[in-house]
Design a protein that fits this description.
Radius of gyration: 22 Å
CATH superfamily of the largest domain: NAD(P)-binding Rossmann-like Domain
Shape: elongated
CATH class of the largest domain: Alpha Beta
Structural class: alpha/beta
Strand order of the largest sheet: 3-2-1-4-5-6-7-8
CATH architecture of the largest domain: 3-Layer(aba) Sandwich
Largest sheet: 8 strands, mixed
Order of helices and strands: EHEHEEHEHEEHEHHHHH
Distance between the termini: 53 Å
Number of helices: 10
Number of strands: 8
Helix content: 40-55%
Oligomer: single chain
Length: 267
C-alpha cells in the first residue's frame, strides 16, 4: 500500500507506523513537521496542494477542517479514504459525498499515541480489501478495533472527552496550593489528571469542546452540587453512583448496596 498521511502530528505519525503501509508520504501545512515525520517513518514528503495520487489517503487533521480536507484530498485516493480526525460525523458524511466509489474507514484511537496500543473506534463505512488490511494491521499492533456509528461515537465523545476534560480543567483552575502531606487519594488522582490534560496542546482540547460541548453539562452539575441542601446532596451523590454503575459492565453483579462509609472511604 502506498499511503499519504495528511497531517504530520502525533496521531498521523502513529497511524503511519501501524497501518501496514509499504510506502508512506506526509503532507502538512508545516513543511518542517512533514519532513520530520517522513524521516522518522523512513518515508518522504508530498505537496499539500499537489495532485499526486496514492493507494490510500489518511486525513489526520484538526476536527474543524475535516470536511474541507476530505473534499480537497479525496480525489488523491485511488482505492481508499481513511481518517483519524477524532469526530466521525463530518468526515464520514464528506467521504460519502466526495469518495463514493472508494473504500472508506474512519478511525479514532482512544488514547494518546505514547500510550498505544489501546481501543480504536471504527466506522467502516465502505469496507474493502485495503481497509480490511488496515484493520488487521492495527489488531496485529495490539490494538482493539471495535465498530460503531458516527452518531454513537460522537455522542460518546461528549462524555468521555469533552465532559471529562472540562471537569479536569475546572478542578485544575479551582484548586489551591497545599502542602503535599495534605493530598488525599482523590486529590492526588485529580492532580495527575490535570498534569495529563495540560501536558498537551490546548488547541486539541479546545477543538474537542467546540465539537462536542461537554463543559456546559459539567458546569450545570457543579451548580447543582454547590446549591444542594443535605437531602438534595445525598440524592445527587447516589444518582452519580448509580449512573457510574449503569455505565459499566460488571461480572460481580454488585448493585453498590452497602458501600457507603461513614468516614468517607477513599477520600
Amino acid at each position: 500500500m502506498d499511503l499519504l498521511v495528511v497531517g504530520a502530528g502525533a496521531v498521523g505519525r502513529w497511524f503511519a507506523g501501524v497501518a501496514g503501509a509499504d510506502r508512506v508520504a506526509f503532507a502538512d501545512v508545516d513543511d518542517a513537521a512533514a519532513r520530520a515525520a517522513a524521516d522518522r517513518a523512513g518515508g518522504r514528503t508530498a505537496a499539500l496542494d499537489g495532485d499526486e495520487s496514492f493507494d490510500a489517503v489518511c486525513l489526520a487533521v484538526p476536527m474543524p477542517v475535516a470536511s474541507g480536507a476530505v473534499a480537497r484530498h479525496a480525489p488523491r485516493a485511488e482505492r481508499a479514504l481513511l481518517d483519524v480526525v477524532g469526530a466521525m460525523t463530518p468526515p464520514v458524511a464528506a467521504g460519502r459525498d466526495h469518495a463514493p466509489d472508494r473504500e472508506r474507514l474512519s478511525l479514532h484511537p482512544l488514547f494518546a499515541p505514547e500510550n498505544a496500543p489501546g481501543n480504536v473506534a471504527a466506522v467502516h463505512d465502505a469496507p474493502g480489501p485495503l481497509t480490511d488490511d488496515v484493520r488487521a494491521a492495527l489488531d496485529e499492533s495490539g490494538n482493539r478495533v471495535f465498530d460503531t456509528t458516527p452518531a454513537e461515537h460522537d455522542e460518546a465523545m461528549r462524555t468521555v472527552q469533552a465532559a471529562a476534560h472540562a471537569a479536569v480543567l475546572a478542578y485544575g483552575l479551582a484548586r489551591e496550593s497545599v502542602r503535599d502531606e495534605f493530598a488525599t487519594p482523590v486529590s492526588r488522582g485529580l492532580d495527575d489528571l490535570v498534569a495529563t490534560v495540560t501536558g498537551n496542546s490546548p488547541r486539541v482540547y479546545r477543538d474537542v469542546q467546540q465539537t462536542f460541548d461537554g463543559a456546559s453539562a459539567v458546569a450545570e452539575a457543579a451548580r447543582r452540587v454547590a446549591t444542594a441542601d443535605d437531602e438534595a446532596f445525598e440524592r445527587l451523590y447516589r444518582s452519580a453512583r448509580r449512573a457510574r454503575q449503569a455505565g459499566r459492565e460488571t461480572e460481580s453483579g454488585d448493585d453498590g448496596a452497602g458501600t457507603d462509609r461513614a468516614d468517607g472511604g477513599g477520600r
